[in-house]
Amino acid sequence: MVWLHDGDPFPEPDPEETGPGGLVAIGGSLSAERLLDAYRKGAFPWYNEGEPVLWYSLAERMVLEPHQLRLDRSVRRNLRRASGLLIRTDTAFERVIRACASIPRPGQRGTWITREMIEAYSELHRLGYAHSVEAWDGAELAGGLYGVCLGKAFFGESMFRKRTGASLAALVTLVRWLAAREFLLFDCQTYADHTARLGARLWPRRRFLALLARALEYETKPGPWRLQSVVDQNWTLGTSLDSSGTSK
Fold first, then answer.
1. What residues does CATH 3.40.630.70 cover in the chain?
2. How far apart are CA 183 and CA 74, in angstroms?
3. pLDDT higher than 80, residue 125
4. Euclidean distance between CA atoms 149 and 28, whole angstroms
5. Contact status, residue 228 vs residue 242, Cβ threshold 8 Å
6. Which architecture characterizes domain 2-59 according to CATH?
7. What is the pLDDT of residue 239?
8. Backbone angles phi, psi at 204, to 5 degrees
9. How deeply is 51 buried, as exposed, middle or buried, from its count of CB atoms within 10 A (0-12, 13-18, 19+)?
10. At the topology level of CATH, where does 62-230 sit?
11. What pLDDT score does 14 carry?
């Protein structure tokens, strides 16, 4: 485990060794440069208000390979409840991250998405590395998620919903979109039932880092995404647009 100071390079990952719970480094800033360096090395920040920045590379990482997306009967049933929602990207990033921070979660007091986190990821969004996927019910933001994209890897950070099926619809739309563009990795970080039902599995750190290295061989193309899809009763998608506005 390493104590970081501003300007220090993020430590190279050890496939085998970490501190308690996967803790690999403490301290430093949440600058865009530091965040991107950490993600490239398989780590992410996770801490509470009032604590120093804690950086984790978990011994087991929840991974969804986009081409392995699975929609079972219960998932499809929940998705049908999202019928009529409009799924869009990068039109309300700060609203999404603030909603993720404020939504009540069972067994959790407060939030790890601190004001410092909101500012840092909003800056990554302005630079074109962080993206939001939003589910709209008319003018109401009904659910969504945000994360970071590097190469052919997407690192999911958090999601929220105000309407049943809304965040799931945003997530599935995104994973399908990533699969169509041959992304190798959707990093779900920790185990969750809803991602397990979609086909995500816990991988040992060594395997995760190997796939991440492959994904990072591809060029990162910063900039806003322009995806737009309407969810219908049969869970088919309408027109989606890539980041340059070209129909796919």
1. 62-230
2. 26
3. yes
4. 22
5. no
6. 2-Layer Sandwich (3.30)
7. 41
8. -65, 155
9. exposed
10. Aminopeptidase (3.40.630)
11. 85
